[in-house]
Amino acid sequence: MNKIIYSVFAFFLSMLFIDCTGCSKSGRDNSRSSREGERETIHLNRSSKTIVKMSEENGTFKIPVEINGSNMNFIFDTGASVISMSETEALFLFKQGTLKEEDFLGNVNFQDATGAISEGTIIKLKTVKIGNKILKDVEASIVHNSEAPLLFGQSALAKFGKVSIDYDKNEITFE
């Protein structure tokens, strides 16, 4: 327990010395306001569909996702076990007041696609909105690297009954 408290404290302390303005690898979408007034909560309804446009960038597909009210562009990654973000993105959410100390659940080791093991922090995202669907209390990880990409992984994808991709239209349908 002390190690978890120390790690969370160290993470918050390190955030004081990081300035995320001008981050070149950011997945944030600053073209829209991160808050557009209070919205009615839409719960995941498996009987309805939502279609999301993908954009291709350097051979990867990105989708727009709203995390705790902030718009971000995530790599659609069926191989990622959880939603994943860098320390820079976590700091952005923390500075916005949408990621709070109580959302930090502890540290864990992760294995990336290259096989490398690195330490990360598990958090709980209050809301993950994709299209017209809102997921609540979704597990995610903070990779202790300021340039790690935003990955939309299985901790969110598994909550949908069906996900299909139309590469001709660059669309993903969530059911």
How would you describe what is shown here?
This protein is α+β, with helices and mostly antiparallel strands and 175 residues long. The protein has helices spanning 2-15, 87-96, 154-157; strands at residues 50-53, 55-57, 60-67, 70-76, 83-86, 104-111, 117-130, 133-143, 151-152, 163-166, 171-174. A hairpin with a 2-residue loop joins strand 7 (117-130) and strand 8. The longest helix is centred in the N-terminal third of the chain and has 14 residues, at 2-15. The protein is globular, with a radius of gyration of 16 Å.
What is the gist of this entry?
The protein is an alpha+beta fold and 175 residues long. It contains three helices and eleven strands.
For the largest beta-sheet, the strand count, sense and barrel status come to: 8 strands, mixed
CATH superfamily: Acid Proteases
Mean pLDDT rating = 79
The first-to-last residue Cα distance is 39 Å
The domain tally reads: 1
Q: Helix and strand succession? A: HEEEEEHEEEEHEE
CATH class: Mainly Beta
- Uncertain regions spanning at least 5 consecutive residues: 1-26, 30-46
- Total DSSP E strands: 11
What shape does the CA trace take? globular
Number of helices: 3
Core attributes:
globular, 175 residues, 3-stranded antiparallel beta sheet, 3 helices, disordered N terminus, 39% strand, alpha+beta
